[in-house]
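Problem: given the chain below (64 residues), write out its structure.
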Amino acid sequence: MSAFTALVTRDERVMVARDGRTVATLAGPPAERLALALSRARDEEARQLLLARATGNYKRGNER
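Solution.
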């Protein structure tokens, strides 16, 4: 699985990137919630899941 990265900008937007490309930019309350959740994540796996969910790119249970 490719790793997601997150960058919180000065204007409080959260930019989510995968493989060096920005795949999602969140602003306002969703960005605040994601930044808070990322700061509270217990490990890197939890951070990756949060970022995948933020982009809509995560397993839904039907993949084999």
